[in-house]
Amino acid sequence: MRNLILVCLAASVLPLFAIAQPVRHTLRGLVLDGNGYPVEFATVSLTDTLQRAGAITAADGAFSLQVAEGRHTLLVRCIGFEEQEVTVEVNADTELPKIILKPSNTELDAAIVQAKRPVVTRAVDRVILDARSLSRASTNALDLLKHAPGVLVDMQGNVSAVGKGKVIVLVNGRKLQMNGAELAAYLRNLQASEVETIEVMETPPAKYSAEGNAGVINIVERKHLSDYLGGAVQDQHYVDYVQMNEPYLTLKAKLGKLLLYSKVSGGLGWREYHTETTRRFAGQEWATSQKKQVDNRYLDTKVGADYDITETLSVGAYYAFLKFIPNEEIDDASIFTTPGGTGKYSGHNSASYDVVRHNANLHLTQAFAGGRALSLEADYLLYTLQHRGLYSAQGASGYRFDNSLNRKIPTYSARVDFESPVGERVKLEAGASYVYTQTQDSADYRSRPALPDQRDRFRYTEGVAALYADATVFLHSKLALKLGLRDEFTTTHGVQSGDRRDEFNRSYNNLFPTVYLRYAPADRHVFALSSSTRIGRPSFVSVNPFSYYNDAYSVWVGNPQLRPSLSYNTSLTYTYSNNLTTSFSYRYVGNSIVRFGITDPATSVTTSIWRNAATTQAFILQASYTWNPAFWFEGQLSPV
Q1: DSSP annotation string for 443-475
Q2: How does 177-198 read in b/e, with b if 16+ C-beta sit within 10 Å?
Q3: What's the pLDDT tens digit per position in 10-32?
């Protein structure tokens, strides 16, 4: 009888529990400002008296809540914006329309509460610079790069890495097909307010080409997540040893699933450089002064579109055009003292350049369930250069020349990348790529005293096919490991058809392993270890078998038998509180390609030929400190 009473009691109580526990659903949303940028740290709460659910928006403006079925009102609040209420009927998992906050006109009389973001964050294979934290102190992307650890920007805008030289610059993961003055002009015209983060990869992962000893910089632009129409117009004027203008116009429009963007920038004026040098050796003294004026004339345009076919599939394309005319006028004067007496000479070099670059790109991204993603990309680049150099000297040296060069380089490339998480602790990335480059050079060397006129006609093709795989393993909340392997197969073909006939073929295959280890023993302490292998392929100039007479006793010759150099790199980095960064790096380079001179005692003619004739080692110690005592002040110390 007792058991029967308990059963009846349970049967009567359980339905009450079922009624008391309402069905709950997930409510998701996105909070943006009027320009379509995410609003971070906004408070989203239910105004219901019985439910006290709430959330804080993440860096991308997203939030999610668990709510019961029925009608609810959300209150969205964030300092600097007006409060907004949103009413929604929930009967299943629900995705809210984008919530747009309006700026508040009310000034705070008391303190301003600001959530500080770390300026520098170290991931397992890269350093991430938060550009939004630095946008107040920077006007363009070139200014932002000056704050990036291990990155150097000189007065001419050339970007390099400490101990590495040049860098490969990407924008949104796609390589910028430019360098030198072209790259500097592009970065000066990319507004700091349009940049989200800058990723610096001192040791590039297996996903990227193993060519050269360069680091990789990826500039990630901010995304407009809501409908948007806007742009910017500006003109930068530089004065000193410079009289230069750089007007700039950009337009962006986000219309539902379609994003359209365009930019036009130009350059006017010139730069001027003055140098004074004195050299003393073997009882001689040479004092030289030089004035160099470089034109800053260019036109740079880009138009593109991205379209979200579905929530998981997007396609895009862009076309970019650049015409660059950095003509040079160089005057130099030298006074020399030798045991035989003194003398002087002066010279003038007038060099004209006409650079044209066409770049077209198609890309597609497909996301799958479970965090998997596939991306496809095809790229075409056509680079042409027309150059003429006229030089004449007076005084002790009567040397002169009239040289011309026509260069055409089409480059075709394609790549596919796939990434997928494996469980909660492993992320796999794999892909393939192919790059085909054809260089056509036509050069003439004329009007040189005591030297014959010469014709250089050289065609050089290079194809690089690559496969790669990366695996990131989160061994512990404080320890992460990333392993990568890249295989590159290279084929080359060269034909010299100028003053002499020569033809050659080469092919070789190389494997490039990469290892990364990140250990964070405490909140403010991060140690990172990386190791990689890189390749330095011979340039088309160094393998050109053409014999160039620099003067009557000096000949420069390329070497078709050159082998690529290989470098082995290891780096250990310590970061404290995302502000202080110190690192020690070691690099060993074997089979380095250097110019090697051999003098014929019978004729006194020195022939300089490129050879694999050097081994180099480098030890690099660097440090940087970022000081951010207030939201309106940020400073950086980076001795190099």
Answers
A1: EEEE--TTS--EEEEEEEEEEEEEEEEEEEEEE
A2: bbeebbbbbbbbbbbbbbbbbb
A3: 444 334 334 444 567 888 888 88
